[in-house]
Amino acid sequence: FQVLQQQVGVLQDSANQNDERYTRAKADNAALQARVIMLEEQLRDTEIRYEEKLQDEQRRSKEYLARMDREKQLQLENASIRLQASETECANLKEEVARQRLRIDKFETQRQDLMDQIQDLNNQLNMSKEELKSYKDQEHRLRRDYDTQTQLLEELSREVERLRMETRTPALPTTSPESLRLEELHEEMSALRSENSHLHEVNEELQAQSSSCRP
């Protein structure tokens, strides 16, 4: 009986210990359940914040992509417009280059014609200078001849005047040598006047030609 009582006591102690362990385990379980519930709520809050953040990031990403697409489209449109403008400008420049080349060819032809005309004018100028020199030489010769004839005419005039004075004396017959000489001098003076007048006309003509030949 004592052994049984000891065994009952041991079993009672063991049961008490089990009750205590059970109570502690139950309390621990309740604490764990509360901890799990808190963690689950934190997890739900975290998931909700993550979803919200994810949705916000997705929204901003979509907006960014949409903005990038719009900017890309605008850049493409601007590039297309610039390309068309550049192509148009290039075509206009090609046409302008072609027109300028035609003008250059035309100016080159005109320049060559002007160079030929200038060469012809230079040749004519050289010929005119030679003619002018010839006219001046001839004019100088004619002037010398004219001066000589004028001097001779003056001498003959003086001689005629002297002979006239001598022929006024009644002693000299009309057939005297002085009278005959006077008539010859008159004829010579008349010829000299004609020749002098002709030389003067030729000289004036040469002067006119010289003036027209001057550059």
TrEMBL record:
Region (Disordered): 188-215
InterPro entries from the UniProt entry: Rab11-FIP3/4_dom, Rab11-interacting_regulator
A GO CC term assigned to this protein in UniProt: recycling endosome membrane
One BP annotation, GO: regulation of cytokinesis
Domain of life according to the entry: Eukaryota
Composition skew (Polar residues), residue ranges: 206-215
Comp. bias (Basic and acidic residues): 188-203
Domain Rab11-FIP3/4: 21-140
Name of the protein this chain belongs to: Rab11-FIP3/4 domain-containing protein
Species of provenance: Aromia moschata
